[in-house]
Design brief:
By secondary structure, the chain is of the alpha/beta class. It has a single domain, classed as Ribokinase (UDP-N-acetylmuramoyl-L-alanine:D-glutamate ligase, 3-Layer(aba) Sandwich), CATH 3.40.1190.20. 36% of the residues lie in helices and 22% in strands. The chain is built from 10 helices and 13 strands. Strands 5-4-1-8-9-10-11-12-13 form a 9-stranded mixed beta sheet, with helices on both faces. Helix 4 links the parallel strand 8 and strand 9. The termini are close together.
Length: 303
């Protein structure tokens, strides 16, 4: 029996064009790179171009140990690129290329068969901006095991989201990750009332979520489920690059939860990993060995 946790980043693979040079990116791709380092078997399900950036993306993923078995190649469209500008606090703004290979993710039978083996995926709204990728992503979600984790990292990037697209994505998810910058958009969409925790509870109940993760940068994070809440402080760091802070948080959180960590233990680990990533150049730096998780599920499956 395969004892590995199988986790996939489902959506965009692209290159962040940073002031320091190109860095492999895309929220699902960053998620997979972090999950792999923490002890999962991670895959990227995406599409790149048959160009130099596409070949470099495949090499970079393989170097990080991430599987490229479902990294498809588009014969005509380029590998996606995003121009990233960082402010004095390392907070990014994005100029996203409009038409890229990741907009046309195919969905062969082999991908559907793979979906039935997955323990968790992370997907976002941005990766569904085109009909082709939207269909493929939702086909994967439809075919995952009932007890798997379907994590929506809502990842709002103007102008590539609408209330309809956000709502449909929430209906596919059983875990939501939302930031303090994104919550006001959802509060407006769904007429959420009261202080922040009350608004989060309303989202949890409205969409029948297993878990809601609320990240708030230097102020830490809140995790909520039906019967429990966890608040964790962010570690004090000098931020050099916050491009993948949320992606690394949800990657660590996912592996921790699947590995039997408590809600608060998972929250604390996710904050530690996000802080480490923020304090280094590049969205997916090599993590220290002590971050690696020994999975309780691995042990049970191997028995």
């Amino acid at each position: 029996m395969n004892a590995e946790l199988k986790i996939a980043g489902l959506g965009e693979t692209l290159w962040d064009i940073l002031p320091s040079g190109p860095q492999l990116g895309g929220a699902p791709t960053n998620f997979a790179c972090i999950a792999q380092q923490l002890g999962a078997k991670a895959y990227v399900v995406s599409c790149v171009g048959a160009d130099g950036f596409g070949r470099d993306a495949e090499k970079a993923l393989l170097k990080r140990g991430v599987s490229t078995d479902y990294l498809f190649k588009h014969p005509n469209l380029p590998t996606g690129k995003v121009k990233v500008t960082l402010d004095e606090q390392g907070i990014p703004s994005y100029d996203i290329e409009k038409e890229a290979a990741w907009d046309h993710l195919p969905c062969p039978d082999s991908l559907i068969a793979f979906a039935r083996q997955l323990d968790a995926v992370s997907f976002g709204v941005l990766s569904q901006r085109s009909p082709d990728s939207r269909r493929a992503i939702r086909s994967v979600l439809d075919n995952m095991p009932k007890d798997s984790l379907r994590i929506l990292d809502v990842n709002l990037r103007a102008p590539y989201y609408t209330k309809e697209l956000v709502t449909e994505s929430l209906e596919y998810a059983n875990i939501l990750k939302v930031s303090d910058e994104e919550l006001p958009v959802l509060a407006d969409y769904y007429q959420l009332e009261g202080e922040v925790t009350m608004q989060l509870r309303q989202l949890l109940e409205r969409f029948d979520l297993k878990l809601l993760a609320y990240t708030r940068g230097a102020n830490g994070s809140i995790l909520l489920n039906d019967h429990q809440a966890s608040m964790a402080r962010a570690l004090p760091v000098i931020p050099l690059n916050a491009v993948a802070a949320g992606d690394s948080f949800i990657g660590a959180l996912t592996v921790a939860l699947l590995s039997g960590y408590s809600l608060h233990e998972s929250n604390r680990l996710a904050n530690r990993v996000a802080a480490y990533v923020c304090s280094h150049q590049g969205p997916t730096p090599a993590l220290p060995p002590e971050f690696r998780i020994v999975s309780a599920i691995e042990t049970a499956r191997a028995a």
